[in-house]
C-alpha cells in the first residue's frame, strides 16, 4: 500500500479552509503594504543555495534534495524562499524599478530533516521581501507587517524576539571573541557544536541541546560588539518599533539559520517558548546577498513563515475560519427521462454562477436526498416525469425539510434570493 513520503502530508478537502484563510489574509495584508506577488521555480541551480546559504550549514550539508538532471547539471529543490527571489531580482533587472522592490510569495519548501510536529520535509511557506534600501524604517515596516500578519489571522499570545548580528566589518571580531569563549567550554558541547566551533561559530548560539544552551547563555553578545554604523542602525530599528507600538524583547542568542543574514534578525514565537520548533515565523536583513550573486550592492530584508505551523496555532487557539464551500443545490431525479432534464438543469445552474451537483446512477429518491445532506447542500431540486411534463421542479429546503413546486424558468431567481 502506497503512502505519502515520510515528512510530507496531504491537505484534504476538509482542511482546505485553514489554508485558504491564511492565503487570503496574507494576500490582503500584502496589498495593504504595497507588496506584489512573485512565483519562482520549485528547483534551481544547486550552486545558488550553496553560495547563499553557506557550505558549512546543516541545510546544505544534510538537508537539501539535490539531483543531476539529464544534461548533467546539479539541481536542488528549493530549501528556502529568499535566494530564488534575489536571483530573479538580478535576472530581470529589478534594480531599474523604484526601490525598494516589495515582493511576496507562497512556495513549497523542501528540506530533508527529522519530521516532528509542525515541521515537515515538504512544507508550505508564506514570505515577503523588500529589496533595495537599508533604511532602518524599512526593517520596522517588515517587522510590523509580520506582526500584523498574525494579528490579521486572529492569533494572540505572541512575542517578538529581536537581535542584531552585525555586518561584515564588525562580525569577524565578534566571531573571534565567540570562538575564544567557546574554546574554554568545549567539553560541554554536543558533537554538532564541536564542528560548528570550527565551521560556523555563530550557530553555536542556536543549539537546542540543554548542555549547549547553558554555555550559550553566558556567551559574548553580538550587540556589544557592533560597529558604530550597525549600532546606530539597530537603535533606530528599536526606536521605530517603539513608535509603532510593537512590543519586543532583545535576545542575544537569536541568530537565524542561514549564513546570509546581517544586522537585524527577528522571530515571532508563542510567549514563553523559544527555539526553531516553536517559532511561527522570522526573518532579517541580507544586505550582501544580491552582490554575492553577481548583482549590484543591494540591501534587503525579508520574512517567512511556515503555514503548517500556523494552521496548528489556529486550531489550538480555536480561531474560526470560513467554512469550506459546499454545493448550494443538489439535483435529484426519478426516471430516465427526468435524468436528461436533471443534467441540463445542473449545467444551466452552473452557467448562472450557482454551485450545483447532479445525482448519478439509479438510486432511490431517499438515497439521493441522503447524499444531498451528506454534501451539505442547502437545497435539492427534484425532477420526476410529472415535473418534466409540466415544466416545473420541486424545490426542497434541506435545513427545514420544506418543499414547494416552482417553474423551471423561475428556479434560478428563487435560488439567487436564497443565497443573498
Description:
- With 420 residues, the chain is α+β, with helices and mostly antiparallel strands.
- It folds into two domains: 13-170 and 226-316, BirA Bifunctional Protein, domain 2, CATH 3.30.930.10; 329-415, Anticodon-binding domain (Rossmann fold, 3-Layer(aba) Sandwich).
- Helices cover 38% and strands 21% of the residues.
- It is built from 15 helices and 16 strands.
- The strands form three sheets. The protein has an eight-stranded mixed beta sheet, with helices on both faces.
- The radius of gyration is 28 Å and the shape is elongated.
How is the secondary structure organized here?
Blueprint: H1 16-33, E1 36-37, E2 43-45, H2 46-53, H3 58-63, E3 66-68, E4 74-77, H4 82-91, E5 101-110, E6 122-131, H5 136-153, E7 158-164, H6 171-183, H7 191-199, H8 210-217, H9 228-243, E8 249-250, E9 262-270, E10 281-285, H10 289-292, E11 300-306, H11 307-316, E12 329-333, H12 336-351, E13 356-358, H13 365-374, E14 379-383, H14 385-390, E15 392-397, E16 402-407, H15 411-418
Parallel strand pairs: 1-5, 7-8, 12-13, 12-14
Antiparallel strand pairs: 2-4, 3-4, 5-6, 6-11, 7-9, 9-10, 10-11, 14-15, 15-16
Task: Specify the CATH architecture of the largest domain.
Answer: 2-Layer Sandwich
Strand segment tally: 16
Note the beta-strand portion. 15-25%
Order of strands, main sheet, comes to 1-5-6-11-10-9-7-8
* Average of the residue pLDDT scores: 86
> Helices and strands: which structural class?
alpha+beta
Task: Note the overall shape.
Answer: elongated
Spell out the CATH superfamily of the largest domain.
Answer: Bira Bifunctional Protein, Domain 2
Helix content: 25-40%
- Describe the sheet with the most strands: 8 strands, mixed
Q: Gap between N and C termini, in Å?
A: 46 Å
Which oligomeric form is depicted? single chain
Gyration radius (Cα, Å) is 28 Å
User: What number of domains?
Assistant: 2
How many helical elements? 15
- Which residues sit in consecutive blocks of at least 5 with pLDDT less than 50? none
Amino acid at each position: 500500500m502506497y503512502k505519502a513520503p515520510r515528512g510530507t502530508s496531504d491537505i484534504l478537502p476538509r482542511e482546505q479552509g485553514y489554508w485558504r484563510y491564511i492565503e487570503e489574509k496574507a494576500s490582503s495584508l500584502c496589498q495593504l503594504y504595497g507588496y506584489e506577488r512573485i512565483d519562482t521555480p520549485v528547483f534551481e541551480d544547486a550552486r545558488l543555495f550553496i553560495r547563499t546559504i553557506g557550505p558549512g550549514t546543516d541545510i546544505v550539508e544534510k538537508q537539501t534534495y539535490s539531483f543531476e538532471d539529464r544534461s548533467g547539471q546539479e539541481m536542488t529543490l528549493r530549501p528556502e524562499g529568499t535566494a530564488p527571489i534575489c536571483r530573479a531580482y538580478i535576472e530581470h533587472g529589478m534594480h531599474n524599478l523604484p526601490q525598494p522592490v516589495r515582493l511576496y510569495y507562497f512556495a513549497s519548501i523542501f528540506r530533508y530533516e527529522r519530521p516532528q510536529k509542525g515541521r515537515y520535509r515538504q512544507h508550505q511557506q508564506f514570505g515577503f521581501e523588500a529589496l533595495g534600501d537599508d533604511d532602518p524604517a524599512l526593517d520596522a515596516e517588515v517587522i510590523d507587517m509580520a506582526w500584523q500578519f498574525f494579528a490579521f489571522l486572529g492569533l494572540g499570545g505572541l512575542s517578538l524576539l529581536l537581535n542584531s548580528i552585525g555586518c561584515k566589518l564588525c562580525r569577524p571580531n565578534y566571531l573571534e571573541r565567540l570562538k575564544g569563549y567557546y574554546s574554554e567550554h568545549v567539553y560541554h558541547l554536543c558533537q554538532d557544536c564541536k564542528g560548528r566551533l570550527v565551521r560556523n561559530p555563530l550557530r553555536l548560539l542556536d543549539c537546542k541541546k540543554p548542555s549547549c544552551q547553558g554555555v550559550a547563555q553566558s556567551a559574548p553578545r553580538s550587540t556589544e560588539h557592533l560597529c558604530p554604523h550597525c549600532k546606530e542602525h539597530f537603535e533606530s530599528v528599536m526606536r521605530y518599533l517603539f513608535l509603532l507600538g510593537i512590543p519586543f524583547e532583545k535576545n542575544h542568542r537569536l541568530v537565524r539559520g542561514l549564513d546570509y543574514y546581517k544586522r537585524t534578525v527577528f522571530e515571532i514565537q508563542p510567549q514563553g517558548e523559544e527555539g526553531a520548533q516553536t517559532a511561527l515565523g522570522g526573518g532579517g536583513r541580507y544586505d550582501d546577498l544580491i552582490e554575492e550573486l553577481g548583482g549590484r550592492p543591494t540591501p534587503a530584508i525579508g520574512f517567512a513563515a511556515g503555514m503548517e505551523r500556523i494552521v496548528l496555532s489556529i486550531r489550538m487557539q480555536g480561531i474560526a475560519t470560513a467554512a469550506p464551500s459546499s454545493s448550494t443545490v443538489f439535483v435529484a431525479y426519478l426516471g430516465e427521462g427526468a435524468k436528461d432534464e436533471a443534467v441540463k438543469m445542473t449545467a444551466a445552474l452552473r452557467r448562472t454562477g450557482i454551485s450545483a451537483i447532479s445525482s448519478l446512477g439509479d438510486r432511490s429518491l431517499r438515497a439521493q436526498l441522503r447524499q444531498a445532506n451528506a454534501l451539505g447542500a442547502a437545497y435539492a431540486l427534484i425532477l420526476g416525469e410529472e415535473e418534466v411534463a409540466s415544466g416545473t421542479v420541486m424545490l426542497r429546503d434541506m435545513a427545514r425539510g420544506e418543499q414547494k413546486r416552482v417553474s423551471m424558468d423561475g428556479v434560478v431567481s428563487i435560488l439567487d434570493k436564497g443565497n443573498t
